[in-house]
Design a protein that fits this description.
Elements: E1 4-7, E2 10-13, E3 18-24, E4 31-39, E5 45-52, E6 57-59, E7 67-72, E8 77-82, E9 91-99, E10 103-106, E11 110-115
Parallel strand pairs: 2-11
Antiparallel strand pairs: 1-3, 3-8, 4-5, 4-9, 5-6, 7-8, 9-10, 9-11
């Protein structure tokens, strides 16, 4: 069983930056993908960014050019650098981990609030 822990959320003014971190337990060789999703106060859930074991990344359209995802495979960690934050980025951010592209694990979430 994989344990997933996020950190780095908080309150920030529009235009500011935050860096989220996620750490997963388990065998690094079996973790093929790590990424971030978010759930807004309106209960919408959407992809933010993801990165696979080979380093290929993908981003949601709304965050392209502002957010950057990075990964350390050996440490089972993934970070999300969020710049130019907007009020619409306010959400609970969840780390998603996929093992062998079969099993899926989630963290408890870290809240991000962006004020106007």
């Amino acid at each position: 069983q994989v344990q997933v822990v996020e950190s780095g959320g908080g309150l920030v003014q529009a235009g500011g930056s935050l860096r989220l971190s996620c750490t997963a337990s388990g065998d690094p060789a079996r973790i093929n993908y790590m990424g971030w999703y978010r759930q807004t106060p309106e209960k919408r859930r959407e992809l933010v960014a993801g990165i696979n074991q080979g380093g290929a990344t993908h981003y949601g359209d709304s965050v392209k050019g502002r957010f950057t995802i990075s990964r350390d495979n050996a440490k089972n960690t993934v970070d999300l650098q969020m710049n130019g934050l907007k009020p619409e980025d306010t959400a609970v951010y969840y780390c998603n981990v996929r093992v062998l592209y079969i099993n899926e694990y989630w963290g408890q979430g870290t809240p991000v609030t962006v004020s106007s």
